[in-house]
Specification:
Elements lengths: L1 H27 L8 H18 L7 H15 L1 H14 L1 H14 L1 H6 L12 H15 L11 H10 L6 H13 L3 H15 L1 H10 L4 H12 L2 H8 L3 H18 L13 H14 L4 H21 L4 H18 L1 H5 L1 H13 L30 H27 L3 H20 L2 H28 L6 H25 L6 H13 L6 E3 L6 H4 L5 E3 L34 E5 L11 E6 L3 E6 L8 E4 L8 H14 L1 E7 L4 E3 L10 E2 L4 E2 L4 E9 L3 E11 L3 E5 L2 E6 L11 E2 L3 E5 L2 E9 L12 E10 L7 E6 L13 E6 L1
Parallel strand pairs: 1-2, 1-3
Antiparallel strand pairs: 3-5, 4-5, 6-20, 7-19, 7-20, 8-18, 9-10, 10-18, 11-17, 12-15, 12-16, 12-18, 13-14, 13-17
Helix pairs in contact: 1-2, 1-3, 1-10, 2-3, 2-9, 2-15, 3-9, 4-5, 5-10, 5-12, 7-8, 7-9, 9-10, 10-14, 11-12, 11-14, 12-22, 13-23, 14-15, 14-16, 14-21, 14-22, 15-17, 16-21, 20-22, 20-23, 21-22, 22-23
Length: 799
């Protein structure tokens, strides 16, 4: 699957986008620069996928429609494609290399991990909703009338997509991935990386326009494609923003090459209109700000040409009419639901919810360099000073670059740059923290490119003393600052656990149609992986109706807090394997168990318990509590059922010996190299399973009594405050005391080596005993037999 998702899928996307770009080029008169073909093709494919999903009976045919259009483009555009292919290796090598390099940089954590995954796992759950939406739109289109709003699945789809939420990026993503039949969860990150790499095309056109060529144009394009903040957004799969960024930059490139098409006939407007449509479909009504900026510059050019007699009025009117018609059809679903699209944009612009941001982003981040492992944090110590020094140099170079652009007479480019900066400033002043962050990200490539314009200005003055050295120093600052910033984010990324999600996805086919299913873990990616089970999660943003608990979004789930009668509606419960957690009530039996998950099915005809008392299995239960339950049981002619937990041995984490690591609410944070040592005692000899709970992205070594027994890494959950249950490690032990060590190594270049490393709890259970509770049935008259026992829960169950 790694080869399919990371290598074959981007090749399929390239064929789709370039083929469609060739078709658009042919339809518009054959004037598109070669580097704009993929981006313009992507915009056209978004428009097509929006149309097929808007006409809901055609939604399942979307992958076929995208394929057919691309094949037609390759057929009609083959002469041009063959000419470019012959000339590219010798004349245009850098143009071919830069997007490929950008893709490799964007997907570096996954590529170097060598397994299908996605990066910065757990930072922002929105990518889970886009998976869900992309899948739904391919199967059902933009039809939401039949959704079941009682479960989490239906509520999520309705809250996001039935309210005017932009879906253009999702329809292109879903349609292209469905061609290969590849799981969306493993193609999501390659899609984002590809769309960001596609932005290298328009950036190349702009870099050439400011006077750069060859390797310098390639370096400028690459760094402007992956500045720190953009790279951070790509790592968390912010698909809307990444696709919108490509469309914004493509509009800028089309503005710059306006002499090629603005004075042509009506067909010349087709590429510009399709890119506008793609942007509106991807970002919603908010894209209008950047669309208006491009239109404003082109309007000024057209008025000037009209006044000078270089543009006949009739031809201009035909071009505007054709562009408007293509834009209307291409973004039909947006216009058909424009009021709600505007409402969504206003809601985002005015919300006080800052999402995953604890505080607003710094304005300095627009310069592309931010020397810290996450864009949410601020550099400290010497890195803080270096970051701001490079920021000052970058901004000064950007001013020089703008002066050079004006001096060169590139007034259209200067106007577009000025309006783009004005949009960013305006959003920063009037919009909220969340929108301001997006605006900074969308503006960052433009600022970096302007700084490279300053580099071009210094090179143009190479005859002046010190100018060449200053240009070289500026190039080192720009490329070095962005490169190091991206490397630090790569180092701190958390990769999604491949094996765990594959196992979860297998349940989707094994138990399809047997829901609704209650999901007992916080992981909103389960919405996609269990999409055929009508899954609901108690701590999801949208929990099942009637099961809203006080735990809150993202916190651990305690099944003991659910009234037994409320569970009758759920034939299945999916839980993580966790020897410290209570199993579901006695009405359920274990029907499947894997490495990470357990599936519990409700016994046919099983009545709901009359009462359910959750207990702390670490303490003996008091007789008074059992007496009260026995009274309820006697009244209803019922009996008592007690859940006897498996044998457990706890290992002290907080009290163990370790270096200067700190213990916080989630657990022991292993901030660097070191070793935890703790002791425990086993009551009998035998084979034991060691269970670690926490979050471990970097690999740690586990040892017992001085011998290494296993290594664990890449095991993370969706929230650092919700400990992950890791794969148990099996070891044979004698009875008595033992010493356990958990060692984290030093610096490593492995992806995610600087990610989460949190140890919450360690327990041991006998390997030859089931890690589930044993049910003990007791008549109500014999309730005293339960006094002083250790149980996970006791129920009153009808006879």
């Amino acid at each position: 699957m790694f080869v399919v998702s990371a290598l074959i899928y981007p090749c399929v996307l390239s064929l789709l986008c370039i083929g469609t770009g060739l078709l658009v080029d042919r339809a518009s008169g054959g004037w598109l620069p070669g580097m704009l073909l993929p981006a313009v093709g992507a915009g056209a494919l978004i428009a097509v996928s929006q149309l097929t999903t808007y006409l809901t009976p055609l939604a399942p045919a979307t992958p076929y429609a995208l394929t057919a259009i691309a094949v037609a483009g390759w057929a009609f555009g083959w002469p041009r494609a063959r000419t470019m292919a012959r000339a590219w290796p010798s004349r245009f090598g850098w143009q071919l290399a830069v997007p490929a390099l950008a893709y490799c940089v964007a997907l570096a954590p996954v590529l170097l991990a060598g397994r299908p995954s996605f990066s910065s796992f757990g930072v922002l759950g929105d990518s889970a909703f886009h998976l869900l939406g992309a899948d739904y739109l391919m199967r059902h289109g933009q039809d939401y009338a039949h959704l079941d709003l009682l479960g989490s699945y239906g509520q999520y789809i309705h809250a996001y997509y039935a309210t005017g939420y932009p879906s253009g990026a999702d329809t292109l993503f879903g349609g292209s991935a469905f061609i290969l039949g590849a799981p969306l969860i493993w193609t999501m990150q390659p899609f984002n990386a590809f769309m960001l790499a596609t932005a290298a095309g328009p950036l190349w056109v702009l870099a050439r326009r400011i006077g750069l060529a060859g390797a310098w144009a390639a370096l400028a394009t690459l760094t402007a494609t992956v500045p720190a903040l953009v790279y951070g957004y790509e790592l968390i799969a912010s698909v809307k923003e990444i696709v919108a960024l490509t469309m914004i930059l493509t509009l800028g490139a089309l503005v710059v090459v306006h002499p090629r098409w603005l004075r042509r006939g009506a067909a010349g407007a087709i590429p510009f209109a399709l890119v506008l449509a793609g942007g509106f479909a991807a970002l919603g009504a908010g894209f209008g700000a950047w669309g208006l900026a491009a239109v404003a510059v082109l309007s000024a050019v057209a008025i000037r040409d009209l006044a000078a007699g270089r543009q006949p009025a009739g031809r201009l009117i035909a071009l505007i009419g054709a562009g408007a018609a293509v834009l209307f059809v291409g973004a039909l679903s947006t216009w058909a639901d424009l009021s709600r699209s505007v409402q969504v944009a206003r809601g985002i612009a005015s919300t006080s919810d800052s999402g995953n941001l604890q505080a607003g982003l710094r304005t300095a981040q627009v310069a592309g360099t931010w020397l810290v492992g996450s864009y949410e944090r601020v550099p400290t110590g010497g890195l803080h000073a270096v970051s701001y020094a490079i920021v000052i140099v970058t901004l000064a170079a950007a001013v020089l670059g703008v002066l050079r652009i004006v001096y060169m007479g590139e007034h259209a480019l200067a106007g577009w740059l000025a309006l783009t900066i004005a949009i960013w400033i305006g959003l920063g002043v009037f919009a909220t923290t969340w929108v301001n962050a997006k605006a900074i990200m969308l503006t960052s490539p433009v600022v970096v490119l302007m700084a490279w314009g300053g580099f071009a200005a210094l090179r143009a003055c190479a005859h002046r003393p010190g100018a060449r050295a200053a240009a070289l120093a500026l190039a080192v600052a720009l490329a070095g600052g962005i490169g190091l910033s991206d490397a630090m984010q790569y180092h701190g990324s958390n990769l999604a656990p491949t094996a765990r999600y594959d196992e979860l996805g297998s349940l989707n086919g094994r138990f399809a149609g047997r829901g609704p299913t209650l999901y007992g873990d916080f992981d909103e990616y389960a919405l996609y992986q269990l999409r055929n089970l009508d899954v609901g999660g108690l701590d999801f943003l949208y929990p099942p109706a009637g099961l809203r608990l006080m735990t809150g979004h993202g916190y651990p789930i305690d099944l003991d807090r659910i009234p037994p009668a409320a569970l009758v509606a759920y034939p299945l419960i999916v839980t993580r394997r966790d020897p410290t957690a209570s199993e579901p009530p006695s009405a359920y039996r274990l029907v499947w168990q894997g490495t990470y998950y357990q599936v519990w099915a409700r016994r046919e005809g099983a009545p709901a318990a009359i009462a359910h008392l959750g207990l702390a299995s670490t303490r003996p239960v008091a007789c008074a509590a059992i007496r009260r339950l026995a009274g309820v049981a006697a009244t209803h002619g019922a009996h008592l059922v007690a859940a006897v937990p498996p044998q457990r041995v706890s290992v002290a984490v907080e009290e163990g010996m370790h270096p200067a690591w700190r213990y916080t609410h989630p657990g022991l944070v292993m901030t660097g190299a070191g070793r935890l040592q703790s002791t425990f005692a086993t009551p009998h000899a035998g084979v034991w399973d060691i269970w670690l709970k926490g979050q471990l992205m970097p690999t740690v070594d586990i040892g017992v009594d001085g011998r290494s027994i296993a290594s664990l890494g890449g095991q993370v959950d969706g929230n650092p405050h919700n400990p992950d249950d890791m794969t148990p490690v099996r070891v044979r032990l004698a009875a008595g005391r033992h010493r356990l060590t958990i060692a984290r190594g030093g610096f490593s270049l492995a992806p995610g080596a600087g990610g989460w490393a949190i140890l919450h709890e360690i327990v041991l259970t006998p390997a030859d005993a089931p890690d589930v509770d044993t049910l003990r049935v007791t008549p109500s008259a014999q309730w005293r037999a339960l006094c002083g026992g250790r149980f996970d829960w006791i129920e009153v169950v009808p006879e």
